[in-house]
Structures are given as structure tokens and as C-alpha cells.
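Box S2. Input/output pair 1.
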Amino acid sequence: MATVNIRRDVKDSFYRYKMPVLLTKIEGRGNGIKTVLPNMADVARALNRPASYPTKYFGSELGAQSTCNDDTERYIVNGAHDQNRMRELLDGFIDKFVLCQSCKNPETELIVSKDEYITADCKACGHVGDIDMRHKLSGYIVKNPPKKASKKGKKGAAGADSIAGQPGQVDDEDDDQDELTRKIREGAAEVMSEEQAAKLIAQREADEDWGEDTSPEAVAARMAALGVSGDSSLLAGDDDDEEAGGPYAEFATWVKENKDEVSAAEIYKEADSRGVAKKTHRLLPYLFPALFTDKVADELPKYLALLAKLTNSDKAVKALGGGIEKLLGDDYPDAVAQTPKVLMVLYQNDIMDEDAIKHFATHVSKKYVAKDVSKRVRKAAEPMVKWLEEAESDEEESDDE
């Protein structure tokens, strides 16, 4: 397979950082036409990044739907796109999400912090730089952080012809250091503070049954099961867990009164300062109706970055569905026809994926609104589900051809 310099602006034929030339293939016809990236997995391995990252980057830059299947290594961007254009976009991805900001070498590792910020740690020069969190792909990376590759996988990342020092490769002389680093990290992972244990138990799934016994002794036993020792009084439960709204409803009221005067970033800072941003699955059912009106489909773009940051778990995405029910079911029932358009915007911006939308449309719940209201809103989502199924059917038909 032909290779090129990872930095295509470097013309040196002896430049050691290489990657396969990105290939494209146009498939389908009409509305089902798409651009398949047959060797995206190989390109991504050379860049030491998951293949879904550049694929999603292409989709966001082109305003097109993108699909990724890591099992079959099939990566697709909807629409017909010129090969040169795709390679230019790949250069943009490399510049923003692969190269070190200091030495411009592609030996960086992406790290997602607990407060959901992304940094690029350069193994060549040691520089740690921030990744632009305003880009749509950053939200996707936060939700899908890179998995640490095994040593075997790293050595094979750039192919048999790779040169020592290439991204994703481990030199033999560094094995001892890597082994020591691994042991240190494994040891750190096993040490969980009492405060972290308290948060872990407090953030249990809403529908998970932890049993009837909530005595300090029983809580301490659950702590021991997690491999944590300490004072069980730290795990005294969340005072506002069972309140009807508590600080989340209060914050939503503040948002409703002040949203015209403050930015989305300021709303998040206020949520963080009040402590309600830590439990987004409790916040979103109140925040979503506070942010929007019956013109929600037109108002969504202003708050997409905020919603992307808050939907940091599957539970938070489900809670976002509850907020949609409250807004279009209770607050503005005459606007329920906007449900498919709202879901489409959230889908195109990687806030709700295909599975989340299908679950929303097919699982009536009385958790956030009355059951008949939930049924009406979710039934209104059927056109979106139909569109997803047709798109999937077109893809399968094209594959068969």
C-alpha cells in the first residue's frame, strides 16, 4: 500500500512518520449515495487514533451523516465526496487532533480528564496542550475516549514497514519503562479514595435496586465489595436524590429567567458552581424545557455545545429524552410535531445516536411526564425512526450490490 508523510507539508522522503494514502470509494445512488473509506482503519492505526475519530471529523466538516463499524472496519460518510477533498480534511484532522502544538510531531496521546477536557500529551517533547473543545468532534471524543492499546497492538499499528519511533510503536529499549508505567497506573487505578467511592455509590442507576438495607454497616459492606476501606459515614446518600426537583428545578428557573442575558458557557459555569452539573441525568429533564420554547427546532443550535457536554453518559441521554417530553408534551403540546426535527438535529450533532433515538421512540415511560403524554411525544418521533431504518436499508442494499 502506498504511503505518504503524515505531515504532507513535509516533503522529505526520509521523514519517519508515514501513513497509508487515504482511499475513497463512491457507492450507491440517489439519496443513498455515500463515500466509503476502505482503508480508514489502517490510516487511523498509523495516526494512533480510533478510526471513528477522523470519520466523525469528516462528517462534521462536510455536514453529512457518518457511520462507523469497528467490528467490520467499515467507515462511511454520506454523499459523494472527492478523494482530494477527503485527504485535505484528513490533513485538518491531523493538525487539530494528532500533531503536537509545540514540536509538530504526531507522537501525541489524547487524554480525557474527569472534568471532560481533552489534552494532547506529546511523547516526543513532553508538551501537554489543550484540544479545541469548540469543535464538534471534541464532544464525540469525550463520550468515546480512546482506549489504551496493548503493546502488541501498538507495535503493529503502522504496519510491517514502520520505522522505529513512529506513532503507536514501542521500541524495545523502552519496554522496561513502559512496563513500569503500566504497573504504576494499574496500582493507581486500584486506589480509590473514600470520596470517589461515595460518588460512585451515589451515582447508581436510577432503576437499579440496591436493596432495602441502607444502614452504615450495609453501605460499608458494599464499599468492601468495591475494594474500598474507610468510614462508611462518607457514603450517607445524596440529600437531593429523591427530591422532586430540589437544586435542579431551582437552577432551571434561573436559566429560564436569565437565558437571554447569558451565554451557553455562562450557563454551564453557573451549573458547575451550584454543583448541579455533576449529575446531568438529574439536571437535563429540568434544563431542556427551561432553555427552549415552542420554537425549539430553531433555538437548538445555540445550545448544542452545552447539550453535548452535559450528555456525558447513556443515562444522561435518556434524561434528555425526558426533557424533550416535558417541553413538547407538557409545556408546548401544540409543538409536538417538531419532535422528529429536534431528534434529527441532536442526531446530526452526535448528541443522540441511532440506538438512543430508537429507544426513545419505542419505550413509553411515566418517569418524567404522564404516560399518555409520553406516548404522544414518542409516537411523534416515528418519522425519525423510519428515516433511520430506510437509511440502514439503503446501506444494506448497496452492500449487497
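Box S3. Input/output pair 2.
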Amino acid sequence: MQWSDYTNGERIKVLRGKDVTQAALSELTGLSVVTIQKAEQDKQLSLNTLMKIAAALGVDTSVILGQQAPRRAMAQSDRTMMRALSQTVHDTAAGLLPDSVVVEEAAVVREAIDKCWDHYWKGHYTKAGALVVPILPQATAYLRDQVVGAQGEAWGLLADAYRLAAYVANLMGARDLAYSAIGHAQAAAERSDDELQPALVASGRAWVYLRDARLGDALSLAEKAAVDIEPRFSRATMEQLTVYGSHINFAAVVASRMKNEDLVKSYLSQSNATGARMGVEHRARGTLFGPMTADTQAVGIAVALGQTGKALDLIRDIQEPELDALTEAARNRYAMDKAMAQADARQWDASLDTLEKALIEAPTWARHQALPSVIVQKVGRASTARVRRVSALIGVRPGVDSGFAPATSKTAL
């Protein structure tokens, strides 16, 4: 069933979801509960009511009218955050800052950015996006407060803030905002005094390309970003190795999507060598890399290449306690790759066990991912009613490959 097949009232109810009651929506809009009820029952929906409900739910009026489908996986809190993030990205780029913004020291802005990255790598994307909203004007105000000719550090902070905005937008499926934010990040990075900053932003743009199915462009940019920062291993710092390793690993991911096995082999060799040189996982500049990251990413790459046997061999060599070295988001992604490999091997029950465990442990992260739905659809063709329980965790209906499931507003991307 498509979004346009529902009535206006049904669409309001779905968008409201379980998290927002009619009474809560009444408070958010300033409308009476009776007016909300009439709107959901398709008895009365004036233009004024429509506009207030749309604003409160964080969607365009065209979504309620069925002219445009909502972005999947977005709860009301997601939509509210994305609207604020979009406004902030465009306003700061135009030089428009809120009157309340206070010029903070660089260390304060950096601490806020690091805290935002922490939430991002835990898979708390809505919280990370909400934190970027005040960081962007703070970083812009700090830049304005610096003497011309001594703004290199400030430009670097602003580049990081825009890169964060681009990452959140990309995960939320807001591709236009992701392109805009990463473009502003690039302009700031080129004026910073940080030699790693341009490559970090280039890698971020490559990821936007990948999510937009521009595989050739993504690979070219990922390769260039890695080459631009390739360190001399004999004297490379952990920060340099971390950034380089994550870049070359990403190039391997893109090459796997293009089914270019020769490139994948080359990049994985460099990724493994970098991880071995580091010896441990290390976090720097909004990314994490090390030997365990290299090993777990290799599983996803093998799955993408259709090398199921190789993926299972790699999984057998990875011990569960070793995964603690990864970020929560990285552990969750590995679990999805593992479940997909098991599904491809027709290990239906094992795949469901892996998937269900990950969904229970990380429900917030899972609702922004596409892979859980793909796995359920694959396993559902040959498994039991157990699929229904797992499907409920991600808000999809077993056997439904497309359309909008009205049971929840948290359908996976």
C-alpha cells in the first residue's frame, strides 16, 4: 500500500506515531483535542489546522496531503531535528546568526564537536544532529571573532561542524542537505590550517556519493582522499594512521559495490597493513580505525561481493569480546553484515538470532538502516513465523518489499 492510498487523517495518525498522543499534538499545535480528532477522522481539516499540524510533526503540508511520501524511519523527533538542522546549515552559510549566540573559546567548541561525534558513533543520530544545531553558529561566531590571517583553526572547527551536519543528513536520507553541508565543509576545510581536513571532507563527500549511487565518483574521490594523506609508516602518528586507514577501507567498500575484486584486494591489503601497524583501535577526527575495524569491514565487503563462504570464514575468526574495541555503530553494522552472510548461506535461524539480538540492543540505530529489512525479506522466504517478531522490531511487514507500513513511523531506511 502506497502513502497516497491513505486518507489525510490516516497519514496524520501514522506521522504522529506512538510517541505523540492526540493530547500532546494538541499542545504542540495550540489546537483543541477535538480539532485533532476531527482531522484524524477526516471530518474537518482547514488550511490553518493543516499548517499547524504539519509544523508540529516536522513535515511539509504535501506529506499530509499525500502528494509526497515521508522519509522512512523518521519519528516526529527526527523530523523536528532535521528541520532545525536544515535551517541552521543554510542560515550560517548565509552569515545569519541568532542574536543569542555567544562567542566561545576554541576549546569549548572543540569539546562540543567531540561530544557530538560520540553520540554519532553510538548511533544516536537524532541527538547528534540536535547538537550540531547550536555548534554551527558557535563555530561561525568564533571564526568572525578571529583576526584575519589567524583564522586557520576556526575554519577547521567550522569544517568539522558542517561535516557532522552532512553525515547526519546523509544517514537521514536528506541528500540535498547532505550535499549542501559537505560543500560548505569543503570551502571551510580549504581555508583551515589542518592538513588532514580537506581529505576528511573529501571522504565525507565520497560517502554522500555512495549513498546517492554515484559509485564511480565515490571511488575516484575516496582514492584521491586516501592518496592525499598516505603517511610514511615509519614516522606516521596514530592520528594519521587512523584517518588513512579509514579512508583506504572506505575505498575498498566502494570498490566492492562496483564488484571490482582486484581493487578490493589491493585496498584491503593496505587496510590490513595499516591496522597491523597500529595494533589497537584508535579514534581521531570523527573516525575510528584499527585491526578490528579492518577485520569486520572485510566481512561486509565479502558479503557485497557475494563471497558468502569467505564472509563466514572471516566471521569465525572474530571473537565476540574483541568487538568491544569498536564503536557501537560499528558493532551494529558488523552484526548486520554477519546476519546477511548467514542468510545468504541459508542459515535462517542463525541469521534471525544475530539480527534480533542487534535490533534489541540498538533499536535507535536500527531504525535508520536499510539492511534489517533486506535481511528479513530474504529470511522470510524460507523461515517460520519467528520472522514476524523480528519484523515488528524494525516496523516492516514480512513479505512486503515496498510501500509504507502504517503500523509505525519507525520503518527502516
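Caption for Box S3: The longest helix spans residues 125-144. Confidence is low (pLDDT under 50) at residues 399-413.
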